[in-house]
Amino acid sequence: MTRAKPPAVILAGGLATRMGGGDKVLLKLGKRTLLDHILDRLAPQAAPVALNANGAAARFAQYGLPVLRDSVPEHPGPLAGILAAMDWAAGLGAPHVLTVAGDTPFFPPDLAARLGTQSGAHPVLATTDRVHPTIGLWPVALRGELRAALGSGTRKVMLWADSVGANRVVFEGAAHDPFFNINTPDDLARAQRYL
User: Fold this and answer.
1) Residue 128 in contact with residue 171, Cβ under 8 Å?
2) Is 103 annotated as a binding residue?
3) Is 81 annotated as a binding residue?
4) Where along the chain is Mg(2+) bound (predicted)?
């Protein structure tokens, strides 16, 4: 039986303070933006795709993506983006939503399929030598619990994910970490070399 592609959300709602501010997804990697590279990898695996970002949505208009704002004020971090993703997917009638970080352009082309092998009532997180908490498949049914956790002050993705029994899928054998994320100008230079 062929499993339907999950909807996916690119998490780009952070403040990018270590990069000097702005939208990391719009930084150039080679001749294209990080968002271009991410969409190239994500589009064959997931549909539809949306972007979680705060501020004026018009700056992403050329991509033609739904832009989902955090529903929790004051930039509480990626958990708020995951909640926005769950709420959007619930509106689509989807049981799960895939999230990827907007600064992680090298994730595997079989990410959704491999995380989907463990999908069920619990989140499924991508793991290499460490867990990558923003790269995951999230059951939409948990959005009420996540909203309550955010309301009570929970901010760490792993703390909440573990509290609801998150599973992990290990990705091994790549020449470099497929979930390498770009936080600093030095990281961007490294990514240019990987490219």
Assistant:
1) yes
2) yes
3) no
4) 103
All domains of the chain in start order, with CATH: 8-194 (3.90.550.10)
Tens-place pLDDT, residues 26-64? 999 999 999 999 999 999 999 999 999 998 999 999 999
Q: What is the pLDDT of residues 78-100, one digit of tens each?
A: 999 999 999 999 999 999 999 99
Run of H or E including 89: helix 78-92
**Contact between 107 and 37 (Cβ < 8 Å):** no
- What pLDDT does 23 receive? 86
Written as six digits, the tokens of 177 are 């970490």
Return d(Cα 14, Cα 12) in angstroms, integer: 6
At residue 75, φ and ψ (nearest 5 deg) are: 45, 65
Q: How far apart are CA 179 and CA 195, in angstroms?
A: 14
Q: Specify burial of residue 69 (Cβ count, 10 A radius: 0-12, 13-18, 19+).
A: middle
- Is 83 annotated in a binding site? The answer is no
Render pLDDT for 118-167 as a digit per residue (tens, 0 to 9).
Answer: 888 999 999 999 999 999 999 999 999 999 999 999 999 999 999 999 99
pTM of the predicted protein model: 0.93
Give which of 166, 106, 162 is closest to 136, Cα–Cα. 166
Is there a binding annotation on residue 24?
Answer: yes
